[in-house]
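Sample intake sheet
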Amino acid sequence: MHDARLENLLGAAALAINDVMLADVHGAGAVSGSSAAALVTLMESPGISVTDLGKRVRLTQSAAVRMVDSLAAAGLVGRSPGAGRLVSVNLTPSGRDTADRILAARARSLAELVSALDDAEREAMTSLLAKLLARLYGEIGDSNVLCRLCDRAGCTRSAVCPVGQAERDRKA
C-alpha cells in the first residue's frame, strides 16, 4: 500500500528532528554536525585512524583531515602515530567533556520531543523505530555510520540495539 501522507509526514518529521537535534548539539559543542559525530565516535572508538573516522562521519579523506586539523587546533583531539602511515586520533580531556555535553544536549532535545507521547505511544514508537533502523542498516550497511551520533550505552541499557542486531544477523 502506498501512503503518500505517511511518507511525507515521516520525511518532514525526520528533517525537523534532525534540525532541532543538531542545533542543540551545535550549541553544546560549538562544532559542526560532522565534528560532533566525530567526537562521539571517538568516545566509542578511541585511536581510530583519520581515514576510518572520516568514513564513519561520511567525509572524504581530505575533508576528514581538515576536520581533525580543526578539532586538534581547538584542543579537542590529539594525533599519534598508528600502524604504518596511519595516524590515530584520540579525544583530549576537553574533547571528552565536549562529547559528553553533545550527547547530553542530544538527549535533552529528543526527550523533550518524545515527552508529547504517552507510555503506550512511546512503546509503539520504540518498536517501529527499531524496525525502521534495522531496515536502514540494510541500506547503509555500516552500524558505525548509522549510529555515529548515538548514545550507545543508552540504546543498549535495557534492550538489544536493533542496528547492532541487524549487523550481527547479516554476518551470521
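Comment: The chain has a mean pLDDT of 90. The first helix runs from residue 4 to 29.
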